Amino acid sequence: MPSAARLRDLIALLDDEDADVRAAVVAQLETYGPALDAELARSDIRLDAAQRTLIRTLLRDGGRRRLLAAWPGWSVPADDYAKLEGSLALLSEYQIGRVAEGALGRQLDALARDYADLTTVRDGLDLARYLFRERGLHGAEEDYYNPLNSSLVHVLTTKKGLPISLVCIFMLVGNRLGVRVEGCNFPGHFLAFVPRGPVKLIVDCFDGGRVMDMRALAALNPALNLEGGDLKKLECTAETIVARTLRNLSNAYRQLGESTESAFMEELIGRLSGADEGSEEA
Question: How far apart (Å, rounded) are the C-alpha atoms in residues 52 and 58?
Fold first, then answer.
Protein backbone atom coordinates (compact mmCIF):
# COMPACT_ATOMS: atom_id res chain seq x y z
CA MET A 1 0.00 0.00 0.00
CA PRO A 2 1.48 3.42 -0.93
CA SER A 3 2.84 5.71 1.80
CA ALA A 4 1.14 8.94 2.82
CA ALA A 5 3.52 10.91 0.59
CA ARG A 6 2.81 8.60 -2.32
CA LEU A 7 -0.92 8.91 -1.69
CA ARG A 8 -0.60 12.69 -1.93
CA ASP A 9 1.18 12.28 -5.25
CA LEU A 10 -1.58 10.01 -6.52
CA ILE A 11 -4.27 12.54 -5.60
CA ALA A 12 -2.33 15.25 -7.43
CA LEU A 13 -2.38 13.13 -10.59
CA LEU A 14 -6.12 12.42 -10.55
CA ASP A 15 -6.87 14.88 -13.33
CA ASP A 16 -3.71 14.29 -15.36
CA GLU A 17 -4.26 14.74 -19.09
CA ASP A 18 -2.66 11.36 -19.86
CA ALA A 19 -5.26 8.58 -19.75
CA ASP A 20 -2.59 5.98 -18.95
CA VAL A 21 -1.45 8.00 -15.95
CA ARG A 22 -5.04 8.28 -14.69
CA ALA A 23 -5.51 4.53 -15.14
CA ALA A 24 -2.35 3.84 -13.12
CA VAL A 25 -3.57 6.18 -10.38
CA VAL A 26 -6.92 4.39 -10.20
CA ALA A 27 -5.17 1.00 -10.02
CA GLN A 28 -3.17 2.22 -7.01
CA LEU A 29 -6.18 3.74 -5.27
CA GLU A 30 -8.15 0.51 -5.76
CA THR A 31 -5.65 -1.35 -3.59
CA TYR A 32 -7.08 0.48 -0.57
CA GLY A 33 -10.60 -0.85 -1.08
CA PRO A 34 -13.10 0.50 1.49
CA ALA A 35 -10.18 1.73 3.65
CA LEU A 36 -9.37 4.57 1.25
CA ASP A 37 -11.34 7.23 3.15
CA ALA A 38 -9.75 6.21 6.45
CA GLU A 39 -6.27 6.27 4.92
CA LEU A 40 -6.87 9.73 3.45
CA ALA A 41 -7.91 10.95 6.89
CA ARG A 42 -4.93 9.28 8.58
CA SER A 43 -2.61 10.93 6.08
CA ASP A 44 -4.31 14.30 6.72
CA ILE A 45 -5.28 14.58 3.06
CA ARG A 46 -8.34 16.77 2.62
CA LEU A 47 -10.18 16.45 -0.65
CA ASP A 48 -12.50 19.04 -2.09
CA ALA A 49 -15.90 18.02 -3.45
CA ALA A 50 -14.64 17.87 -7.02
CA GLN A 51 -11.78 15.52 -6.08
CA ARG A 52 -14.09 13.22 -4.11
CA THR A 53 -16.50 13.04 -7.02
CA LEU A 54 -13.66 12.37 -9.45
CA ILE A 55 -12.21 9.56 -7.31
CA ARG A 56 -15.62 7.96 -6.91
CA THR A 57 -16.30 8.19 -10.64
CA LEU A 58 -12.91 6.80 -11.69
CA LEU A 59 -13.07 3.90 -9.24
CA ARG A 60 -16.66 3.10 -10.16
CA ASP A 61 -16.03 3.21 -13.90
CA GLY A 62 -12.90 1.07 -13.66
CA GLY A 63 -14.71 -1.48 -11.49
CA ARG A 64 -17.61 -1.66 -13.89
CA ARG A 65 -15.39 -2.24 -16.90
CA ARG A 66 -13.61 -5.11 -15.14
CA LEU A 67 -16.85 -6.66 -13.91
CA LEU A 68 -18.57 -6.48 -17.28
CA ALA A 69 -15.52 -8.03 -18.95
CA ALA A 70 -15.44 -10.91 -16.44
CA TRP A 71 -19.19 -11.34 -15.95
CA PRO A 72 -19.87 -13.87 -18.77
CA GLY A 73 -17.29 -16.25 -17.29
CA TRP A 74 -19.11 -17.13 -14.08
CA SER A 75 -21.87 -19.02 -15.89
CA VAL A 76 -19.49 -21.25 -17.86
CA PRO A 77 -18.97 -24.07 -15.30
CA ALA A 78 -21.55 -26.85 -15.34
CA ASP A 79 -21.47 -27.13 -11.55
CA ASP A 80 -23.96 -24.85 -9.76
CA TYR A 81 -21.65 -24.34 -6.78
CA ALA A 82 -18.80 -23.18 -9.01
CA LYS A 83 -21.20 -20.81 -10.77
CA LEU A 84 -22.44 -19.42 -7.47
CA GLU A 85 -18.97 -18.86 -6.06
CA GLY A 86 -17.66 -17.33 -9.27
CA SER A 87 -20.49 -14.81 -9.54
CA LEU A 88 -20.43 -13.81 -5.88
CA ALA A 89 -16.65 -13.43 -5.95
CA LEU A 90 -16.98 -11.01 -8.87
CA LEU A 91 -19.64 -9.00 -7.06
CA SER A 92 -17.51 -8.80 -3.91
CA GLU A 93 -14.54 -7.61 -5.92
CA TYR A 94 -16.71 -4.97 -7.57
CA GLN A 95 -18.08 -3.72 -4.26
CA ILE A 96 -14.83 -3.78 -2.28
CA GLY A 97 -12.23 -3.26 -5.00
CA ARG A 98 -9.14 -5.10 -6.13
CA VAL A 99 -8.13 -5.67 -2.53
CA ALA A 100 -10.79 -8.43 -2.54
CA GLU A 101 -9.42 -10.34 -5.54
CA GLY A 102 -9.18 -14.01 -4.61
CA ALA A 103 -10.30 -13.28 -1.05
CA LEU A 104 -13.58 -15.19 -1.13
CA GLY A 105 -12.02 -18.51 -2.08
CA ARG A 106 -9.37 -18.14 0.61
CA GLN A 107 -11.94 -17.29 3.29
CA LEU A 108 -14.18 -20.23 2.38
CA ASP A 109 -11.20 -22.59 2.24
CA ALA A 110 -10.14 -21.48 5.72
CA LEU A 111 -13.61 -22.07 7.20
CA ALA A 112 -13.84 -25.53 5.65
CA ARG A 113 -10.32 -26.38 6.84
CA ASP A 114 -11.07 -25.23 10.39
CA TYR A 115 -14.22 -27.33 10.53
CA ALA A 116 -12.44 -30.38 9.12
CA ASP A 117 -9.68 -29.99 11.72
CA LEU A 118 -12.25 -30.11 14.52
CA THR A 119 -14.33 -33.12 13.54
CA THR A 120 -14.74 -35.97 11.11
CA VAL A 121 -18.50 -35.37 11.12
CA ARG A 122 -19.92 -34.46 7.74
CA ASP A 123 -23.45 -33.37 8.53
CA GLY A 124 -25.35 -30.29 7.37
CA LEU A 125 -26.93 -29.49 10.72
CA ASP A 126 -23.62 -29.82 12.54
CA LEU A 127 -22.00 -27.53 9.98
CA ALA A 128 -24.84 -25.03 10.51
CA ARG A 129 -24.20 -25.14 14.26
CA TYR A 130 -20.52 -24.52 13.67
CA LEU A 131 -20.97 -21.60 11.27
CA PHE A 132 -23.90 -19.81 12.89
CA ARG A 133 -23.23 -20.46 16.53
CA GLU A 134 -19.62 -21.39 17.15
CA ARG A 135 -18.13 -19.10 14.48
CA GLY A 136 -20.72 -16.40 15.07
CA LEU A 137 -21.98 -15.72 11.57
CA HIS A 138 -25.33 -14.01 12.06
CA GLY A 139 -28.01 -11.85 10.53
CA ALA A 140 -27.43 -8.14 10.02
CA GLU A 141 -30.21 -6.95 12.30
CA GLU A 142 -28.93 -3.37 12.17
CA ASP A 143 -27.93 -1.63 8.95
CA TYR A 144 -29.81 -4.38 7.13
CA TYR A 145 -29.92 -2.60 3.78
CA ASN A 146 -26.21 -1.81 3.62
CA PRO A 147 -25.18 -3.03 0.13
CA LEU A 148 -22.06 -4.63 1.62
CA ASN A 149 -24.30 -7.15 3.39
CA SER A 150 -24.54 -8.81 -0.05
CA SER A 151 -20.75 -9.07 -0.39
CA LEU A 152 -19.59 -12.45 0.89
CA VAL A 153 -16.08 -11.15 1.53
CA HIS A 154 -17.52 -8.39 3.71
CA VAL A 155 -19.94 -10.78 5.42
CA LEU A 156 -17.16 -13.22 6.28
CA THR A 157 -15.08 -10.34 7.66
CA THR A 158 -17.81 -8.71 9.76
CA LYS A 159 -19.68 -11.99 10.46
CA LYS A 160 -23.05 -10.46 9.61
CA GLY A 161 -25.11 -10.50 6.45
CA LEU A 162 -28.43 -11.01 4.73
CA PRO A 163 -30.24 -14.36 4.83
CA ILE A 164 -29.18 -15.13 1.26
CA SER A 165 -25.54 -14.22 1.92
CA LEU A 166 -25.38 -16.50 4.95
CA VAL A 167 -27.03 -19.35 3.03
CA CYS A 168 -24.49 -18.97 0.20
CA ILE A 169 -21.62 -19.24 2.68
CA PHE A 170 -23.28 -22.34 4.16
CA MET A 171 -23.64 -23.86 0.68
CA LEU A 172 -20.09 -23.10 -0.46
CA VAL A 173 -18.37 -24.25 2.74
CA GLY A 174 -20.52 -27.38 2.69
CA ASN A 175 -19.55 -28.07 -0.90
CA ARG A 176 -15.88 -28.04 0.08
CA LEU A 177 -16.62 -30.65 2.76
CA GLY A 178 -18.87 -32.91 0.68
CA VAL A 179 -21.93 -31.73 2.64
CA ARG A 180 -24.93 -31.01 0.44
CA VAL A 181 -26.67 -27.71 1.17
CA GLU A 182 -29.14 -26.15 -1.26
CA GLY A 183 -30.84 -22.80 -1.59
CA CYS A 184 -34.50 -22.46 -0.59
CA ASN A 185 -36.00 -19.58 -2.58
CA PHE A 186 -38.60 -18.59 0.00
CA PRO A 187 -40.17 -15.19 -0.79
CA GLY A 188 -38.84 -12.41 1.40
CA HIS A 189 -36.53 -14.58 3.51
CA PHE A 190 -34.02 -16.86 1.81
CA LEU A 191 -33.47 -20.19 3.56
CA ALA A 192 -31.38 -23.33 3.17
CA PHE A 193 -32.31 -26.91 2.40
CA VAL A 194 -30.28 -29.68 4.06
CA PRO A 195 -31.17 -33.00 2.39
CA ARG A 196 -31.62 -35.80 4.92
CA GLY A 197 -32.58 -39.06 3.24
CA PRO A 198 -35.90 -38.63 1.42
CA VAL A 199 -36.67 -35.29 3.11
CA LYS A 200 -35.19 -31.82 3.08
CA LEU A 201 -34.72 -30.02 6.37
CA ILE A 202 -35.20 -26.25 6.29
CA VAL A 203 -32.55 -24.12 8.01
CA ASP A 204 -32.80 -20.41 8.80
CA CYS A 205 -29.20 -19.17 8.68
CA PHE A 206 -30.28 -15.65 9.70
CA ASP A 207 -31.63 -17.09 12.95
CA GLY A 208 -28.59 -19.01 14.13
CA GLY A 209 -29.13 -22.05 11.91
CA ARG A 210 -32.57 -22.83 13.37
CA VAL A 211 -34.32 -25.84 11.84
CA MET A 212 -37.87 -24.93 10.79
CA ASP A 213 -40.92 -27.16 10.54
CA MET A 214 -43.69 -26.60 8.02
CA ARG A 215 -45.79 -24.65 10.51
CA ALA A 216 -42.99 -22.15 11.14
CA LEU A 217 -42.33 -21.92 7.41
CA ALA A 218 -45.98 -21.25 6.59
CA ALA A 219 -46.09 -18.54 9.28
CA LEU A 220 -43.37 -16.61 7.43
CA ASN A 221 -45.62 -16.17 4.42
CA PRO A 222 -49.17 -17.59 4.74
CA ALA A 223 -50.04 -16.42 1.22
CA LEU A 224 -47.56 -18.89 -0.28
CA ASN A 225 -49.91 -21.79 0.52
CA LEU A 226 -47.50 -24.69 0.77
CA GLU A 227 -50.12 -27.38 0.48
CA GLY A 228 -49.09 -30.84 1.60
CA GLY A 229 -45.60 -29.66 2.46
CA ASP A 230 -44.70 -29.24 -1.22
CA LEU A 231 -41.24 -27.65 -1.18
CA LYS A 232 -40.42 -28.38 -4.81
CA LYS A 233 -41.45 -24.89 -5.86
CA LEU A 234 -38.79 -23.42 -3.54
CA GLU A 235 -35.85 -25.23 -5.13
CA CYS A 236 -33.57 -22.94 -7.11
CA THR A 237 -30.50 -22.73 -9.32
CA ALA A 238 -27.33 -20.65 -9.04
CA GLU A 239 -28.83 -18.26 -11.59
CA THR A 240 -31.86 -17.72 -9.36
CA ILE A 241 -29.65 -16.97 -6.35
CA VAL A 242 -27.51 -14.54 -8.35
CA ALA A 243 -30.61 -12.77 -9.70
CA ARG A 244 -32.04 -12.43 -6.19
CA THR A 245 -28.71 -11.10 -4.86
CA LEU A 246 -28.62 -8.51 -7.63
CA ARG A 247 -32.20 -7.45 -6.87
CA ASN A 248 -31.23 -6.99 -3.22
CA LEU A 249 -28.29 -4.86 -4.30
CA SER A 250 -30.40 -2.79 -6.66
CA ASN A 251 -32.89 -2.14 -3.86
CA ALA A 252 -30.15 -1.32 -1.32
CA TYR A 253 -28.45 1.18 -3.63
CA ARG A 254 -31.80 2.73 -4.54
CA GLN A 255 -32.58 3.27 -0.85
CA LEU A 256 -29.25 5.06 -0.48
CA GLY A 257 -30.09 7.32 -3.40
CA GLU A 258 -27.37 5.73 -5.55
CA SER A 259 -29.50 5.41 -8.66
CA THR A 260 -26.53 4.80 -10.97
CA GLU A 261 -25.38 1.80 -8.93
CA SER A 262 -28.95 0.52 -8.71
CA ALA A 263 -29.30 0.77 -12.49
CA PHE A 264 -26.01 -1.11 -12.96
CA MET A 265 -27.30 -4.00 -10.85
CA GLU A 266 -30.43 -4.04 -13.01
CA GLU A 267 -28.20 -4.15 -16.09
CA LEU A 268 -26.45 -7.23 -14.67
CA ILE A 269 -29.82 -8.87 -14.05
CA GLY A 270 -30.64 -8.24 -17.68
CA ARG A 271 -27.51 -10.13 -18.69
CA LEU A 272 -28.59 -13.26 -16.81
CA SER A 273 -30.17 -16.16 -18.60
CA GLY A 274 -32.35 -18.90 -17.16
CA ALA A 275 -32.94 -17.22 -13.80
CA ASP A 276 -36.20 -18.15 -12.11
CA GLU A 277 -38.36 -15.54 -10.45
CA GLY A 278 -37.31 -14.54 -6.97
CA SER A 279 -37.92 -11.71 -4.55
CA GLU A 280 -35.89 -9.23 -2.62
CA GLU A 281 -35.17 -9.89 1.03
CA ALA A 282 -37.83 -8.63 3.45
Answer: 10
Nearest to 170 by CA among 76, 81, 282, 279: 81
Strands 199-204 and 191-196, bridge-based pairing:
antiparallel
Q: Which domain holds residue 214?
A: 78-270
Structural domain includes residue 222: yes
Three-class secondary structure assignment of 167-212 = HHHHHHHHHHHCCCCEEECCCCCCEEEEEECCEEEEEEHHHCCEEE
Cβ contact 185:275 at 8 Å:
no
Phi, psi angle pair for 29, to nearest 5°: -65, -30
Is position 277 within any domain? no
153 and 16 part of one domain? no
* Residues 174-222: tens digit of each pLDDT: 999 999 999 999 999 999 999 988 889 999 999 999 999 888 888 888 7
Are 185 and 134 contained in the same domain?
Answer: yes
The letter for the amino acid at 146 is N
pTM for the model: 0.85
Quick check: helix, strand or coil at residue 59? helix
| Helices and strands, number each (H, E), in the chain | 12, 6
